[in-house]
Amino acid sequence: MIEIKGIDVVKGNRKIIEDVSFSIRPSQFTVVLGMNGAGKTTLLSAITSREKLSKGEIVWDRKRLYDFDLKDLAVRRAVLSQKFSLGFPMKVKELVEMGCYPIKRKISNIEKKELIHNALTEVGMRSFLNRDFISLSGGEQKRVLLAKCLVQLDDKCEQGDSKYLFLDEPTASIDIQHSFKILQLVKELTIKKGIGVFAILHDLNLAAQFADKIIILKNGRITHKGSPTEVFKETHIESSLGIKSIIQKHPLFGCPHITTLPS
Amino acid sequence: MNIKANTVLVGMVVLLLAVICFSLFVGAYSVPASDIIKSFKAALVSSGKSQDELIGVNTFLLFQIRLPRILLSGITGAGLAITGAAIQGLFRNPLADPSLIGITNGAMLFAVFALVMMGSIMAFIPEFLQQSVVAIFAFGGSIISTYIVYFLSQRGGKTFVVTMLLAGIALSALAAAVSGIFIYLSDEQQLRDITFWTLGSFSGASWGQLFIAAPVILLGSFALDRFSVSLNAILLGENEAEYLGVDVEKVKSGIILLTSLVVGVCIAMSGIIGFVGLIIPHFIRILKGADYRFLMKASALGGAIFMILADDLARTIIAPAELPIGILSALIGGPFFLWLLMRTNQERLMI
């Protein structure tokens, strides 16, 4: 379990994150919602050790985050970033293979190949194995990078401690079908492999369908947290996300279904 | 790395050995193949002292002049190309090469200073070092300028590569301007020396030079090659690399330290040879992609092969005189690379 205990993140003179506390549990899908500039990405960076805390601490499986070295962290968590660019042209398979870099034990080429193939199959990109990464569309690139994260978190890599997957807007620039598929795949990871997922999303209905726990950030503070049914209230959405809505019960899944309204 | 990449590397090693052997025959003074074998025997059996005077001359020519020169040009080519590949990867920029972070102009400034002020500084230099005073100054210049640039781009324990690039450009301009002052003050002979030094040459190659240069360049290159996995990860960006467990700051300082050492020694031994560090890694990328596990080794081998062949031409094309290697490496490499670039119509390889 990752425990975030009263953290502040300050950049320049601005407090981006203020007194944020919550926990990310294995086998749980945690979703963060918030308006642009609410501090979602900074929060994710702080939890993944890319951002310094000015107050509070983050405890990762009973060990302080800053006591881990980068290699130990790399086998425990994978991150799918919002922005990325590739310095030089590379093939899809070479990129996915990077997920094997943190593996400490010796790994055979056959094993490596299998890991890469499986991961690409899971994200529906198996046939793109030998394609050039930069020739792919934005959505396809994101799926390839997700495959890299899957390789990084594969059980064959490192046994033991719980693993976490961090996703910064995984469905941005991805079509509806694949957005759904990606979140479904991620959800399966939480159920089958016990991976804890922390995702930043903007689509409230996708969040309601897949999340076990929802956190809403506003101006760097948590305004609401809890299960989708607890968090998705018309008043909460209006005060924290700035939009009026009607909330009904989803006819199939039973989760809240949010219809946003013009203000 | 797949088997194919390994096969290519083995092929390049074989080609390098073939080029070395071939280059022994090449030169203003021709040595027949049979004499080369005799000279080999003479060199091995009686340490170069043969009854036959001609064999003696040949042995001297082959083992005291040509072989060290071939080996020095080879390792210099390897050193320049592998550092070029590493710097391009670190900066994630295809236009980067060691000269961008101030190494070359820093070396030039110090070398020009040494050449122009030779008369005044000689008195302070111990006698055994007087022969290599320009080389020592050039090496010092490249190390000092790199560290100034590196220091200027540090903030809070982090190195900012774009700042480093800009600082490198500014410092290079400054060094060039100060060099200009010394050039302005120089006399005719000094001006000629400066011009030839900046065009590079292996004509002074000796075993002595090789014994200094080879360990630094070879060990430096091996050490740089160990960063290849990290450089692959850095292609995705510094954040992504850290997520994959790469200590980016360590990689940066390691690569910059090693590059300044390797390039510093290369420049000290042979003057300024541009182009190789920039072009050879691109050449390899066009042929086989940007995977650094292959690129670093292949660049080193490719750089060695290219430099030896260029030097073969340098010492034969206007024999018995010699063309500076800096001119030739660009004269051959330029059109060849352009041809390769035009031939590649695959969009993926366009940057």
Return Rg of chain B in Å.
Answer: 21 Å
Question: What is the multimeric organization of the chains shown?
Answer: heterodimer
Order of helices and strands of chain B: HHHHHEEHHHHHHHHH
Give the integer mean of the pLDDT values of chain A. Answer: 89
Mean pLDDT of chain B: 84
Shape field of chain B: globular
Approximately how much beta-strand content do the residues of chain A carry?
25-35%
Number of DSSP-assigned strands of chain B: 2
Tally of helical segments of chain B:
14
Q: What is this structure, in a nutshell?
A:
Chain A is built from nine helices and twelve strands.
Write the layout of secondary structure elements.
The complex is a heterodimer of chains A (263) and B (351).
Chain A: E1 2-11, E2 14-24, E3 29-34, H1 40-47, E4 55-60, E5 63-64, H2 70-74, E6 77-80, H3 92-97, H4 109-122, H5 138-153, E7 164-168, H6 176-192, E8 196-200, H7 204-210, E9 213-218, E10 221-226, H8 228-231, H9 234-241, E11 244-249, E12 256-261
Parallel strand pairs in A: 3-8, 3-9, 6-7, 7-8
Antiparallel strand pairs in A: 1-2, 1-4, 4-5, 9-10, 11-12
Chain B: H1 3-25, H2 33-45, H3 53-91, H4 103-121, H5 133-152, E1 154-155, E2 158-159, H6 161-185, H7 188-199, H8 207-225, H9 228-234, H10 238-243, H11 248-270, H12 276-288, H13 292-316, H14 325-343
Antiparallel strand pairs in B: 1-2
